[in-house]
């Protein structure tokens, strides 16, 4: 198991797996539905071809891939370093009859050689989880950017949804090798009279 392996996530997916087996429910959707809708709308607005290769980094229960497949995308891959997450997403994929979704147990910080040539990479919360790692978070963030450069084609799109990082911080993290195309609107929340952003969603293009 990899050094940044987070056992609490694994436990969460195991619980979700049991729940799914009990009641056939896809469990909690991380970040809520609106972030998936936001991603799919952007791809549609950009007229991204439906056969573009899409990688979901840290796919979790795979629900985003299911939604992409329902929207007509045909070349979908999901990776997660938690085998329980991949098991769960396989069960959900089977239940939905989505055979064109590929799922693999992969550590994105040490990706296998065949993980390359993607036109679109999507991250909802995985970069957050990696950057919260108490052991060498900064080194892991730099490794994440290196991995992203190796799996995403030049001029490919990277869509990131984050709860921890501001737009400025993300621009700083992904400044090398990527340029920002746009910031996607996200729900605002009010905190002590100041308007804050609970979620940041950005689209980068690889140079």
UniProtKB/TrEMBL annotation:
Top-level division of the source organism's lineage: Eukaryota
Secretion signal span: none
Gene Ontology terms describing biological process: methylation
Gene Ontology MF term list: protein-lysine N-methyltransferase activity
HAMAP family per record: Methyltr_EFM4 (MF_03188)
One CC-aspect GO term: cytoplasm
Protein known as: EFMT2 methyltransferase
Keyword terms of this UniProt record: Cytoplasm, Methyltransferase, Nucleus, S-adenosyl-L-methionine, Transferase
Gene3D superfamilies reported in the protein's UniProt record: Vaccinia Virus protein VP39
A Pfam family that the UniProt record links to this protein: Methyltransf_31
Methyltransferase domain residues: 53-180
Species per Swiss-Prot/TrEMBL record: Syrrhaptes paradoxus
InterPro entries in the cross-refs: Efm4/METTL10 (IPR026635), Methyltranfer_dom (IPR025714), SAM-dependent_MTases_sf (IPR029063)
Catalytic activity: L-lysyl-[protein] + 3 S-adenosyl-L-methionine = N(6),N(6),N(6)-trimethyl-L-lysyl-[protein] + 3 S-adenosyl-L-homocysteine + 3 H(+)
